Amino acid sequence: MVDHLAQLLDVVKVVPTVNQIEVHPYFQQREVQAAGAEHGILTQAWSPIGGITFYRESEHTSTLEDRTIVAIAEAHGKSPAQVMLRWHLQQGRSVIPKSTKPHRIAENFDVFGFDLTAGELASIDALDTRKRGGPEPDAITLESFGRQIPEA
Ligand SMILES: NC(=O)c1ccc[n+]([C@@H]2O[C@H](COP(=O)([O-])OP(=O)(O)OC[C@H]3O[C@@H](n4cnc5c(N)ncnc54)[C@H](OP(=O)(O)O)[C@@H]3O)[C@@H](O)[C@H]2O)c1
Fold this sequence. Notes:
39% of the residues lie in helices and 8% in strands. It is mainly alpha-helical.
């Protein structure tokens, strides 16, 4: 998070190259991305196609079935996953999608033959709910996790 980066940058001699954080259309963390970019730190998106959104208990909120994303995918003859990966890449992020299925791994690599328009990128930006899917970073303390880093 922004304050963690600030604390870190106050004490380190080597600026980190990459900050791996949760980023997908439903949770975008633009302020963390901007803070990293100010210091040349690349944002790497985990759960880049929203994997963490597939298992929510209440309503079904999978990014793969989002109407905006599906419509953009249909317009380009691509899959929703490919559209999300393209959105990340065109905005300069690194992505680490995970699949256990060879045909999906191939699909997730095949994202370099089309471009989303500025309007399409903006309509995916507008899907941000600002609701985190993963654990709250501020709740990860020495007390709660109990793993001391001697060098820290
Ligand atoms: N640093 C951290 O705290 C952190 C936290 C979470 C995750 N990660 C890393 O981030 C990587 C990705 O995160 P993630 O696995 O949570 O989410 P993800 O890559 O956004 O989504 C993975 C899910 O999407 C499915 N999938 C993959 N490609 C697809 C496609 N083309 N079409 C339809 N479904 C597709 C996968 O199912 P199938 O396998 O059945 O294809 C799986 O259910 C993981 O490798 C993990 O190591 C890091």
